[in-house]
Design brief:
The protein contains 14 helices and 3 strands. By secondary structure, it is mainly alpha-helical. α1 links the parallel β1 and β2.
C-alpha cells in the first residue's frame, strides 16, 4: 500500500507514517512530494493521500490526521491515545493537550532544520515515535526524579484541598493527583509550579489559571507560602528547632526571606512570635 503527503514533514506527517507502519501496514511505502503535486501523484501512483485539505485522511475540528487514522482503523490502545494527545498538541500548537507536546514540536523542528531529506527525517522519526510509544505504554506514570519531594508536598496540598472543598466536584487533575501521590510528607516545603505541572502532567499556564478556584481563592505561590507559614508556626510552637532551621525546613531560601513572609502573614516576626508563645506557656504553667 502506498501513502502520499506533502514534503518537508515535521509532526503529523511523520507520526502518521509511523502509525501506518506499526499498526496498519508494515510494508507501506511513504511518499513525500511538493504540495501542488500530491493529488496528481496520488492518482498516478495509486497512493492514498493524507494530511492535506480536501482528502479523507486529514484534520477534523481540533483533531489532527493522526487522530483520524486511529478512529478510521478502529485501533483500541490506551498508550496510543496518550501518544495521540501529544501529537495533536504539537501539530496544532495546543500544548495544553499534553505537556510533552512542546518538547515533541521542538525536537522535530530541530530535526527538520538539520535534515532536508524527507526519508532520512522519517527514519529518525520512526525511532523517536517508537520510544515515545514505549513511554506511553510502560513509563508514562514515572517521573525523572523519584526522590518524592514534589509528590510528598502535593499530599499536604491535596489533603488541604479535600478539607476546604468537600461537596465540590473535583477536577480531573485533582483526582489524578490523589491517585499519584504517596502517603508521606516531606519536611522541606520547597515546591515550584513547574514541579507540580510536571507531576500532574498539566500545562503550567492552565494550572496557574485554575488553581485559585480550588484553593481558597489564592494563587499557587500565595497558597504555598501560607502552608509554609502554618508549618513554621507549628514548628515554633511544638519543637526546639532554631528559627534558621525552621526557615530551612519550611522551604525558605534564607532567614531574611522567612522573617519577611512570616511577618506579612502573622503581623509579627518569628522571633517575637516565639517569645510570646514561650511567655504564654510560662504564664499558663504559673
Amino acid at each position: 500500500m502506498k501513502w502520499i503527503t506533502r514534503e518537508h514533514p515535521k509532526i503529523d506527517r511523520i507520526a502518521c507514517p509511523w502509525l501506518i507502519k506499526r499498526f496498519i501496514d508494515a510494508d507501506a511505502e511513504i511518499i513525500y512530494v511538493p504540495f501542488a503535486q500530491v493529488l496528481d501523484k496520488a492518482k498516478e501512483l495509486d497512493a492514498i493521500p493524507f494530511d492535506l485539505p480536501g482528502v479523507e485522511y486529514t484534520h477534523y475540528n481540533d483533531q489532527c490526521t493522526f487522530d483520524y487514522f486511529i478512529k478510521k482503523h478502529e485501533i483500541k490502545d490506551p498508550a496510543l491515545d496518550r501518544l495521540a494527545a501529544i501529537v495533536r498538541g504539537a501539530d496544532t500548537d495546543r500544548h495544553d493537550f499534553a505537556p510533552q507536546s512542546a518538547g515533541l514540536e521542538a525536537v522535530f523542528s530541530g530535526l527538520a532544520y538539520n535534515s532536508k531529506n524527507d526519508q532520512d527525517l522519517l527514519a529518525f522519526g520512526m525511532c523517536i515515535y517508537d520510544g515515545l510509544y514505549s513511554w506511553a505504554q510502560h513509563l508514562y506514570h514515572k517521573k525523572h526524579s523519584q526522590t518524592g519531594t514534589a509528590e510528598q508536598m502535593l499530599l499536604e496540598v491535596f489533603t488541604r484541598y479535600l478539607q476546604d472543598s468537600k461537596g465540590k466536584k473535583a477536577p480531573a487533575w485533582a483526582k489524578e493527583l490523589k491517585e499519584m501521590i504517596q502517603d508521606q510528607m516531606d519536611t522541606n516545603m520547597s515546591l515550584s509550579l513547574q514541579q507540580v505541572s510536571d507531576v500532574l502532567e498539566i500545562n503550567p499556564a492552565y494550572l496557574s489559571r485554575e488553581f485559585s478556584k480550588y484553593f481558597e481563592n489564592l494563587s499557587f505561590g500565595d497558597y504555598i507560602r501560607k502552608l509554609r507559614i502554618e508549618k513554621a508556626i507549628n514548628l515554633i510552637e511544638n519543637t526546639a528547632y532554631s528559627l534558621t532551621e525552621i526557615a530551612y525546613l519550611t522551604g525558605f531560601s534564607d532567614q531574611s526571606h522567612f522573617n519577611r513572609i512570616f511577618k506579612k502573614q502573622t503581623g509579627q516576626n518569628p522571633s517575637l512570635y516565639r517569645k510570646n508563645i514561650l511567655k504564654s506557656k510560662k504564664d499558663t504553667n504559673s
